[in-house]
Amino acid sequence: MSRAAVARMKRARRRRRIILGVLVAVMTLMCALAGWFAVSAWIAKGEVEAAVMAASQVKSAAESGELEQTADGLDEFADHVQSAYRQTSQPVWALAGMTPRYGADITAIRETVHILEDVSNNGIPKITKMLRSVDLDRIGIKDGVISLGGLEDSSADLAAAHQSIVDAAARLNTVGPTTIPQLTSALEQGREQIGRLSALTDMASRVADVAPSMLGIGGGGNGSSSGNGGASRTYLILAQNNAELRATGGIASSWGTLTVTNGRLRLTDFATPPSDAVFGAGEASGVLTADERNLFSTNMATDYQDLNFTPDFTRTGELASEIWERAGNGKVDGVISVDPVFLGRLLAVTGPVSLDSTITSAVLGLEQGDGGANTLTLSAENAAEVLLNRIYLTGATQDEQDAFFSSAAAQVFDHVLHHLDGKGRSLMKVVQAAADDGHLYVYSTHEAEQDRLDGTAVSGALISGDAPGNPVAGVYLNDGTMGKMDWYLDREVKATYEKTYPNGARQYTLDITLTNIADAATISGTPVLLRGYTADHKPRHGEIETVLYVYAPAGGRLVDWTEDFNQIATHEGLTVGVKTVTLEPGERFTTTVRVLASPAAGDTALTVRQTPMID
Predict the structure, then answer these.
(1) Residue with the larger pLDDT of the pair 100 and 79
(2) pTM
(3) For residues 472-498, average pLDDT
(4) Per the omega criterion (within 30 degrees of 0), is the bond before 502 cis?
(5) CA 518, CA 504: separation in Å to the nearest integer?
(6) Does residue 265 contact residue 234 with C-beta atoms inside 8 Å?
(7) The domain 233-436 is classified under which CATH number: 2.40.128, 2.60.40, 3.30.70, 3.40.630?
(8) What are 386-413's pLDDT values in tens digits?
(9) Across the chain, which distance is largest between two alpha carbons, in Å?
(10) Among 607, 330, 610, which residue's Cα sits nearest to residue 491?
């Protein structure tokens, strides 16, 4: 063999050794990288799971009023997210994201963790700062002066934190899709927890923004930046009577005012509304929309008892404030609606009140108050029953009943204003619950404030047809009995998911049951002011006439129903089915209505808003 051939063989063997060495080195490096990634991924997985667990505990702590525990939970969430971020920021994750098949999944994990890290840096610290600076024990009313416990100084931080979380939620919705079921589930959990946190910060930022100016306290809120903070405010108070149902509660048979100056509250006496200042028949078409006239008649503007035929409390607030001004009482800064159920819940916080009353405790079957025979004790246990039923069993005249209701509302309010010191946590729970189930509504005549109230439960605003992403069905009742029989009207409303259409629209069933639980023999002997009158002014004998309104979600429709509607109409872009139901004592009406939500609502669950219940 020639020397040249030998040299060629040696060179070939040397190249093979080099190539083999490179391959071994590459394989060793790949194994090392794989091991590095596996360890890092395992650590990141544990940190993300711990972060989700911490976030899941934040909501319950916040709702319980445990602010320090809420702050600790958020700190724990942020710490775990930061640890996960340190893992997923390592170069090996970028390399792993380039691999076939699972590269997109790894990239989705990195993006999710990086989004959460942004929240932990830019949102969480501002929230925990607020939580540790607000004193819940100082939130409340002492000697007629309201305090926000430092919340008024947190508006800017809460707004910034909420925006950070909203941005994160939007970015999370762009992550994916993923091919690993466990990863998909984890991403959904992350979206859900961020959504819950967003809801909490949204409500907190709105309250911190508008409460200072609306309460005449000042501070850093939206109202104060507009020059309203610290100014005196006057609100029209509507006391709704749920014994005669209206869509947002009951007839507003007693009106009063609440003035707030630098946090000090002053309540005027409640009285019958100014009936001479309502709109005339010729004016109704100018103040009501065509939808309102069609669904609720012009009575919505011409009779103060029917202002809340509409389930949209913002419209009730607009009309009531204008009528108040037409009566020569001046402009108000807003309208607040309360009812006996809410007053009873307040008495659960403050304790019972001894009322001066022209109708004696003996007649009402109540415990005598501290002041003797002309006083009675109103408590959390009996407030709703006394104000919504017992008074109408006494045989008192219409004027006497109205005077009793107005006087009781005023005295309960006055009692509450002076017996809430140190009870801020309990007060907040009562207010939140009353707003959620429709026993408390607030409307502001200041546009910037009303914009912030819109979208919250306390606003009572109708979710109109231009908000298809928020699926809300409505079940509302207006009384047609012209009496006080709705104490005996039992109601059940159940919503059930049924199916999803190919375009993503979800269908639900609404099962609605109305029952007249009055005893026929007993009710026939009660005063006619309780039993009511027919359309031709003849006394009724215990039947309850109710107008039922079923609203489809925005961008959706009523699919079908088991009981025919009298009318299918529209209201602010929403489809509405209307049916008048008359029930004799012991009689029951049941209907099932299928409603379709908009495809834009996606997987967002249906919410059912309804006329507040007597509980």
Answers:
(1) 79
(2) 0.86
(3) 98
(4) no
(5) 44
(6) no
(7) 3.40.630
(8) 999 999 998 888 888 888 888 888 899 8
(9) 134
(10) 610
Burial class (CB in 10 A: 0-12, 13-18, 19+), 205: buried
Helices (H) and strands (E) in the chain, counts: 20, 19
CA-based nearest residue to 567, from 343, 374, 313, 291? 291
Boundaries of every domain in the chain = 30-223, 233-436, 462-610
What is the secondary structure of 439-456 as a DSSP string?
Answer: S-EEEESSHHHHHHHTTS
d(CA 435, CA 420): 19
Q: 242-271, pLDDT tens digit by residue?
A: 999 999 999 998 999 999 998 889 988 888
Query: How far apart are the C-alpha atoms of 185 and 165, rounded to whole Å?
Result: 20
Query: Domain 462-610 - what CATH class?
Result: mainly beta
Q: Choose the weakest-confidence range: 5-19, 147-161, 534-548.
A: 5-19
CA distances from 492 to 476, 510, 515, 518, 591 (A): 12, 10, 9, 16, 11
DSSP state, 486? G
Q: Yes or no: say if 553 and 272 are a contact pair by the CB < 8 Å rule.
A: no
Q: Are 583 and 486 in contact (CB under 8 A)?
A: no
For residue 233, what are the CA distances in angstroms to 283, 314, 373, 436, 537? Answer: 29, 18, 38, 25, 42
Mean pLDDT lowest for which of 114-128, 445-459, 489-503? Answer: 114-128
Q: Which of 1-10, 88-97, 149-158, 503-512 has the highest mean pLDDT?
A: 503-512
